[in-house]
Amino acid sequence: MIVVANPPEPDLYLFDKLIATAFSSSIPCAMVVNKVDCDLSTTKVIRDNYSNAVDNIFNVSAKTGEGVQELKEFLKGKLVVFSGQSAVGKTSIVNRLFGENRRTGEVSYKTQKGKQTTTVSEITERDGIRVIDTPGFTAMDIDIPEDVFPWSYPEFSHLANECRFTDCRHINEPDCAIKTSVEKGEIFANRYKRYKEIYKEIKEKDKYDKKY
Prior knowledge:
By secondary structure, this protein is an alpha/beta fold. Helices cover 35% and strands 11% of the residues. The protein has two domains: 2-133, Rossmann fold (3-Layer(aba) Sandwich), CATH 3.40.50; 149-211, Orthogonal Bundle (Ribonucleotide Reductase Protein R1, domain 1), CATH 1.10.40.50.
């Protein structure tokens, strides 16, 4: 489960990589938008980009408790890993869910980046809910082969078989169902734009690995 908030500024490239990695490993992925008591614009950004990429998006406030009960019901019977940037409120949500009072971080107003307080992964279990709270991070190397990556986007996977070429990378190929869906507005254009940039990153990494 990816936890996001603003502040810090949401890193959509990071979220894309996390979702692709989870989907390619057959791991269900959901998103939680925290701090909705002080920012609602992020909820629209997340829904525009990811409403057809993840099954569930929850809007919560760890501070006020808004939306937390709905999230709690969803988590029952599951083992869930909270991941995301530092200071988005992962530990604060755990505190609200379980009545804990663990130390939480804050945002540096100079850098607008999170100050990390969780340094090891911690599991909390109660009432049929198991949550692993992980340290926040700001960057991620994606480790998906170049030929697998085009299949790692949930909203692409059910359309890819409609492409003219079975090995379509959805970049420059003609009669690409993904590009057609982007043109129709069925796939969010900015998410597709980031897909192309991450694909380029993977290709360059593969070339480097083969060279050395």
